[in-house]
Amino acid sequence: MSLTQPVASDHQLARLLQIGMVLEEVVEARAHNHYEALGDDELDAEIVALLEDAAEESGEHRRRLEALVDELDADPIAYEEIERLVSARYESDTDFDGVLYDQLCNEETAYKFYDDLIAAIEGSDIEFTIGRDRLLAVLEEIRAEEREGVEEVTELMERRR
Amino acid sequence: MNTQAQYLKTIYLVQEEADGPASTGAIADRVGVSPASANEMIGKLEERGLADHEKYKGVSLTDEGISRARDALQTYCIIERFLWEVLEVEDFQAEARQLESVIDETVAERLDTIIDRRDCCPDCFDAETDACELLELEVPSEPAD
């Protein structure tokens, strides 16, 4: 173990971005599976819209992260395998509270991840292949969207109390 | 995982290996810092009620310290297993050590949903190999016809 800079190379940065991609894939798959498990009969339009937005946004975040990874010197990840793992191991909650609570955890976890990653990059003086300003701008935008996501789910949960 | 959690995890593992208090030197070596830095953090852990430090004997974690150390070790195990099973990283121990400070336990909990971790975690962690002893490190061979 070492308390050295966590983001000290292109390779480490790529690895962290890949972890972000997997997290986004998990969010996307969980939102999709919630919808599949409960369906239109059980879920009202508000929750369906929230799950659709969440899945769409996660897909977009994943593509933005993937574009950054492509610019770095890193091994590709077997994406189909991740999709398979996520759907194979997923266990769906089957009530509204479970769906919303799970979605809140997803958004909060993603926000925390990007927040820590941004702090780690800011604390590192390494020059990456990608321009630091652009890298941070992309991650800050994604983090802001995750924060909005947390607020949206929280508001929805409060309205339904 | 924050710095405190990394220290707790290390002290726990050194304590287990020594079957007694962990020496400051061993902790500093394992963390990769100077003994002075290690002493400073050990002082903070004492103030927070997470460890007891007896001069010439070493550091022992309190019950609360042990509980948090085991949580930190579990987070570390999740990172290692995730790197190995999902991202197929061969040198997963080295990468886990580099990444552990950026991966929070809430993030690890999400990664945990797609890995195959046993209930006995973190008791199956082997400090010598720096990996879970149940991790299947051999690439499965093709079945014979």
UniProtKB/TrEMBL annotation, chain A:
<dbReference type="InterPro" id="IPR009078">
    <property type="entry name" value="Ferritin-like_SF"/>
</dbReference>
<protein>
    <submittedName>
        <fullName>Ferritin-like domain-containing protein</fullName>
    </submittedName>
</protein>
From TrEMBL, chain B:
<feature type="domain" description="HTH dtxR-type">
    <location>
        <begin position="1"/>
        <end position="62"/>
    </location>
</feature>
<dbReference type="GO" id="GO:0046983">
    <property type="term" value="F:protein dimerization activity"/>
</dbReference>
<dbReference type="InterPro" id="IPR022689">
    <property type="entry name" value="Iron_dep_repressor"/>
</dbReference>
<dbReference type="InterPro" id="IPR022687">
    <property type="entry name" value="HTH_DTXR"/>
</dbReference>
<comment type="similarity">
    <text>Belongs to the DtxR/MntR family.</text>
</comment>
<dbReference type="GO" id="GO:0046914">
    <property type="term" value="F:transition metal ion binding"/>
</dbReference>
<dbReference type="Pfam" id="PF01325">
    <property type="entry name" value="Fe_dep_repress"/>
</dbReference>
<dbReference type="InterPro" id="IPR050536">
    <property type="entry name" value="DtxR_MntR_Metal-Reg"/>
</dbReference>
<dbReference type="Pfam" id="PF02742">
    <property type="entry name" value="Fe_dep_repr_C"/>
</dbReference>
<dbReference type="InterPro" id="IPR001367">
    <property type="entry name" value="Fe_dep_repressor"/>
</dbReference>
<keyword id="KW-0238">DNA-binding</keyword>
<dbReference type="InterPro" id="IPR036390">
    <property type="entry name" value="WH_DNA-bd_sf"/>
</dbReference>
<keyword id="KW-0805">Transcription regulation</keyword>
<keyword id="KW-0804">Transcription</keyword>
<dbReference type="GO" id="GO:0003677">
    <property type="term" value="F:DNA binding"/>
</dbReference>
<protein>
    <submittedName>
        <fullName>Metal-dependent transcriptional regulator</fullName>
    </submittedName>
</protein>
<dbReference type="InterPro" id="IPR036388">
    <property type="entry name" value="WH-like_DNA-bd_sf"/>
</dbReference>
<dbReference type="GO" id="GO:0003700">
    <property type="term" value="F:DNA-binding transcription factor activity"/>
</dbReference>
